[in-house]
Specification:
Elements: H1 2-6, H2 9-34, H3 47-95
Length: 99
């Protein structure tokens, strides 16, 4: 339980962004898979629907990728900041008794 309490708010935001990004990419991939026929091609009712769906899915996949990267960046930056703050605290503790 101690590790859950040690996660900061920024790290939680990173985890949430990663989860939302993965969910978006999963939904797009699942929809593409469900549209495939026996030959492996996607089937649409009309050309306009194919264009609109493809564009919308590309945008959603791009947003999902950006959310994943942003989440990873937030988590990594906060982890690095926590780690360097702990090192700084340890250095201060070592220097204080010697004075």
């Amino acid at each position: 339980m101690k590790t859950l309490l040690a996660i900061t708010t920024v790290q939680w935001y990173g985890i949430i962004l990663i989860a939302v990004g993965l969910i978006l990419r999963y939904i797009v991939g699942r929809n593409r898979f469900n549209r495939r026929g026996v030959g492996g091609l996607q089937h649409y009712d009309s050309y306009n629907r194919a264009l609109a769906t493809t564009l919308f899915e590309k945008i959603l996949k791009l947003i999902g990728t950006l959310l994943l990267l942003a989440g990873l960046f937030l988590y990594a930056v906060e982890w690095f900041n926590k780690r360097s703050a702990e090192k700084y605290r340890q250095e201060q503790i070592r220097e204080t008794p010697g004075q």
